[in-house]
Amino acid sequence: MNIADIFKKKTVFSFEVFPPKKESGVETIYKTLEELKDLNPDFISVTYGAGGVGVANATTIDLCSMIKNKYGVETIAHLSCLYNTKESIDEILNQLKENGIENILALRGDVNPDFEVKNDFKYASDLTEYIMSKNMGFNVSGACYPEVHQEAENMIADIQNLKKKVDAGADHLISQLFFDNNAFYDFIEKVRIAGINVPVEAGIMPVTNKKQIERMVSMCGASIPAKLSKLLQKFGDDHIAMRDAGISYAVDQIIDLVANGVNGVHIYTMNDPYVAKRISDSVANIIKK
Ligand code: FAD
């Protein structure tokens, strides 16, 4: 099913997982998926590493296939292009097709000095255009940045570039994580003025670990509102208290987003089904399954 069609019927509720690192046991991700599927998400997306589909011990395609074909849950395969050639993308598209996976989150990918950049694609819009030109029946989603992509000149330039991605064929957007809903509302207003009319899902990362969030924020530049900063100061060194406070903060964010008419909410689960379940249960009457 085309993910964009789900938004015509309801407020979408979805999850993101990542393939386990080489050294981690593969069983944990199977257990995670088993528990996440019981929460009835509209879809589960699976991230893609800069090193390609072969780096993990369960690849993006393996996991998407399991989500779709074993659990009957819709899925999106993330796919980045900086380190892929047209030939390697063709190979991946064929594998996705063979596994019945219809939805792709087309990304540029982050710059990683450990890998050699191939020069077939420069931006996510190039990959989007390429996938659409193949006419293989894929639906393409894209990423967007409520607090501006870190390499962009400014918000206007970033939104003009986002429009190119949508014009190339992306019919659904998922946002970078943010903690300040007002930043998201300002962004949505600008995006709509720019003539981008596809559904935009809000990316929500539950803050359950102070160190992890400091690393994320330094990578993506999300601002920390005073309310969250107080929670981090007070509970940051107490894992269980921080987890509960972070879940509660994420639930508050989601309720406010739904009250303000958000198209959908995408939870960055960090492969933690316990946190996903607590959030899912708390918003069960706010976002109908
Ligand atoms: P683009 O849309 O190509 O934008 C990158 C930069 O180039 C922006 O500054 C933009 O303004 C500019 N730009 C875009 N088009 C043009 C143009 N035509 N001319 C000039 N400038 C342009 N990374 C992974 O490696 N794997 C993942 O699985 C993954 N999943 C993600 C999921 C989500 C929801 C998000 C928000 C990010 C994800 N990322 C992932 C991170 C992403 O790869 C990085 O943020 C990356 O730096 C940008 O990717 P993009 O697809 O948004 O790039």
What characteristics describe this protein?
289 residues, alpha/beta, TIM Barrel, eight-stranded parallel barrel, binds flavin-adenine dinucleotide
Number of domains: 1
Structural class: alpha/beta
Total beta strand runs: 8
**Arithmetic mean pLDDT:** 94
- Mind describing the biggest β-sheet? 8 strands, parallel, barrel
Strand order of the largest sheet: 1-2-3-4-5-6-7-8
- CATH C-level class is Alpha Beta
Helix content: 40-55%
Strand content: 15-25%
- CA distance, first residue to last residue: 17 Å
Secondary structure: elements and pairs:
Blueprint: H1 3-6, E1 12-17, H2 27-37, E2 43-46, H3 60-70, E3 75-80, H4 86-98, E4 103-107, H5 124-133, E5 139-144, H6 155-168, E6 170-177, H7 181-193, E7 200-204, H8 210-220, H9 226-235, H10 239-259, E8 264-268, H11 273-282
Parallel strand pairs: 1-2, 1-8, 2-3, 3-4, 4-5, 5-6, 6-7, 7-8
The structure holds flavin-adenine dinucleotide (FAD).
